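User: I'm preparing a small set of examples for a lab meeting where we compare how different chains pack in three dimensions. I only have the primary sequence for this one, and I'd like the structure in token form so I can line it up with the others. Please keep the answer compact; I'll paste it straight into my notes.
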Amino acid sequence: MPTSTPPPPSLLSNGKIACLPKSVREELNRRLDDSERGPKILAWLNALRASGDQCMVAPLNCHVACC
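Assistant: Understood. Below is the structure token output for the 67-residue chain.
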């Protein structure tokens, strides 16, 4: 069986969500598991950003798929 080569590091974990601290990503996953709606999650994430979280540089916005 041939082994697959992992993608280069430049293609891994470089999105806005991936850069979040682990605790925030875990809370985000919990909220998604609880079927929380996109706009409410975005309000929570952007409130973290407004409170001065160093990693949250750019605001997150809602695409049609998450609303």
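A couple of notes for your slides: Residues 48 and 56 are 7 Å apart (CA to CA). Residues 20-66 form one domain.

User: Perfect, thanks.
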